[in-house]
Design goal:
Pfam families: tRNA_edit (PF04073). The chain has about 180 residues and is an alpha+beta fold. It contains 6 helices and 9 strands. Strand 3 and strand 4 form a beta hairpin. The longest helix is centred in the first third of the chain and has 12 residues. The radius of gyration is 15 Å and the shape is globular.
Length: about 180
């Protein structure tokens, strides 16, 4: 994977970026949340992100978009990339039987994100708060969060403190801590 140099903040040329990516940077700047950023070839999986991890000095977070069997409740789970996801363990903690991966159409509808680019940043697009944020305890204990800016051709390193104390409050969002 080719990595373009690590930079502080937004790219100089925002016009060439997709609107969802531009909006991510604009919101982070408005909230005065500093971040490191790197551009790269599409990275849709944790395995794809190994070089990105090295360049940014952070392990990219695994982001899973989940739904209940009836497709009436949706969840965004942030967890360490190396952890195995066990539906049964999570289902018990959030009192939701038969969780499965949510379809791309719901990702687009609620988060304005395509499969392979799922990120906590997509919550800025969920104005009706249809998606409940779930964060694994191990992620909460990290100094930095690695995530995509709503596209999988860039990655960012952001302070977890800024996510919890600036980003989520600005969106009027709360999270549920889970242990996987």
């Amino acid at each position: 994977m080719e990595i373009i140099k690590v930079e502080n903040g937004s790219p100089a040329d925002l016009e060439s970026r997709l609107p969802r990516e531009r909006h991510t940077y604009e919101l982070l700047e408005q909230l005065q949340i500093p971040f490191l950023r790197v551009d790269h070839q599409p990275a849709a999986t944790i395995a794809d992100c190994s070089l990105v991890d090295q360049e940014l000095g952070v392990d990219m977070c695994k982001n899973l978009f989940l739904t209940n069997a009836q497709r009436t409740k949706f969840y965004l789970l942030l967890m360490p990339g190396e952890k195995k996801f066990k539906t049964k363990d999570l289902s018990k903690q959030i009192n939701s039987a038969r969780l499965s991966f949510g379809e791309g159409e719901y990702m687009e509808k609620f988060l304005e994100i395509s499969p392979g680019a799922v990120s906590v940043m997509g919550l800025m697009n969920d104005r009706e708060q249809q998606v409940q944020l779930l964060i694994d305890r191990d992620i909460l204990g990290q100094e930095f969060l690695g995530c995509h800016p709503c596209v999988n051709t860039s990655s960012m390193r952001i302070s977890m403190k800024d996510i919890l104390e600036k980003f989520l409050p600005a969106l009027h969002r709360e999270y549920i801590e889970v242990v996987l």
